[in-house]
Amino acid sequence: MCRMHLSLARWPRWYLAGASLAVAMLASPLAALDYVTIRQSDRQKELAGKIEVEAADGGVLLQTRDGVLWPVKTEEIVSRRSDEKAFVPLSREELASQLATEFPGFKIHKTQRYLIVYNTSPAYAQWVGALFERLHGAFYNYWNRSGAALHEPRFPLVAVVFDSQESYALHARREIGEATASIIGYYSMATNRMTMYDLTGVEQAAGGRSSPDRINQILSQPRAERTVATIVHEATHQIAFNSGLQVRFTEMPFWVSEGIAIFFETPDLRSAKGWNGIGNVNYVNLQSFRKYVGTRKPGSLELLLCDDKRFRDAAASEDAYSEAWAFNYFLLRTHKDAYVKYLKALAEQTPLVFLEPPERMKQFQQFFGDNLAGLETDFLQYMRKVN
Questions:
Q1: Does residue 76 fall inside a structural domain?
Q2: Other C-beta atoms within 10 Å of 216: how many?
Q3: Is residue 122 domain-shared with residue 207, that is, in the same domain?
Q4: Residue 152: pLDDT above 80?
Q5: I need a surface site. Which of 85, 123, 179, 269 has the fewest CB within 10 A?
């Protein structure tokens, strides 16, 4: 199945050069509230939040109190003002109330960190919440032990779960268009939400989907492994962009973001902890990578590092994803300290400032050295021994 990370595949490219951007006071969570009235499709709406980045021509990146990021073009802005009220993220209760209004007829299952908005069975919402909480714990445990400095999410993490593919597609089509036919769930960098549907709906086995044990039984079957892995893949993106490991709308190479998600994507539903070892070999992608190596051309690694276009090309995306996993696996096993420092540098970049390929390569080589050919040789030799 071809994946699509909505926020990475469709983020806006209305940015100006780095010199034309003025960065707002990101360090102060008590910054004054900014109000921006925008016009979209002949309708006006006032947004209240904090301007994170402002372009010289007046365009802004505004974060509202629910965690949504609004990249607003200059021509969409009707008016702006600010007051002395402090910017404070919505509480769990406030956000839950907003979501209840936005999704009439849905219920909300609350976990320690998640708000699961659903119109399917309560048991399935509980199963999703428990799965995501286990992923969250595994993610933080791995990166904290690796030396990365993570923080807890500033906003409650939201997952919207529809009862069927049909109802999901009706909602998701506004964001991802006709791709809803092949995408079973996605994380949106703009809304900061996971959107998916009840995966047990693809099964018609007797016993229904009324209990967590039955749900686990259905989704533990080998044929469901890739389906569950895709949901975990997208949930990993959500955690990464809310923990400080990555920052939304910054220059984040696809090979990094997608490689990390694949690194975490396969849960062991038979395990009480949900994961039986982070960073185990992802055999689906290992098989794809070994197939790709047979036709892989010189310069493939340089292209992976400098250009994301292969991830958007249906004919090349499987090879790109498998190489992204393999290279991340190699670096995390052999150059972890440099990799963590590289991630930190990526996270410190200014949002909406994008690098040209030579700049991306220079940034990478600051942490992994100038001998790309030697690194590529080591990478291919290492992966030949993985089994």
A1: yes
A2: 15
A3: yes
A4: yes
A5: 85
